[in-house]
Every structure is written in C-alpha cells, then in structure tokens.
Amino acid sequence: MLDMALVLATFECPVSVILQNAGVSWASLPTMPDKSPLALSGKLKSLPLYDIDNVLIDENSCKERGIKVNDHFPGKLCERDQILDCLNISDVVLEA
Description:
This protein is an alpha/beta fold and 96 residues long. It has one domain (2-88): 3-Layer(aba) Sandwich (Hypothetical Protein Ychn, Chain: A). 32% of the residues lie in helices and 12% in strands. It has four helices and three strands; from the N terminus they run H-E-H-E-H-E-H. The chain has helices at residues 2-10, 41-46, 59-65, 80-88, and strands at 16-19, 54-58, 76-78. A three-stranded parallel sheet has the order 1-2-3. Strand 1, helix 2 and strand 2 (54-58) form a beta-alpha-beta unit. It is globular, with a radius of gyration of 13 Å. The protein starts with a helix and ends in an 8-residue tail after the last helix.
C-alpha cells in the first residue's frame, strides 16, 4: 500500500496515510539501514518528497496494543474522530 500511495502522489493525487488497528505496528518498527531489503525507512523518508504530509496514527489502536511510535516515524498520533474526518472527505479509500 505504501508503494501505491507513492504512485498516486506521483500523479498529483492528494494522499493521506492512516494507520489503525494492526497497522499501527508499522509506526513502531525499528530503524533499519536503508540498504537492507527489509527496510521501509527509505520509503517512509520519501513521503514528504511526494507531498504526503498527512500521516495519521490511531492513538487508541496504539494503546490497545501497547505500541510506542518510533521517534523517527513520519506521522502523528490522533484520535479516531480526526481519522473519521479524513476518511469522510476522501474521494477514494484503499485498505490493506
């Protein structure tokens, strides 16, 4: 889904990334060397380059799973109301 978000942003589509439920685990991944084949850090670092600045992390999902967001993750914790507002103004929602 991250690749799809980058492709959509390439075509100047407004893109927001929302992590909730089990997806909040991404926000707690340790930083890996960028050259590692398992590293998402390069893609995550490139989000702002593609004008993907709205990365929302569901605070309730983090609390339910005992997840602490990595300091280097490019997103912000928010309440579900803010996530619902973002979803309600979206033309298309892709879910993974």
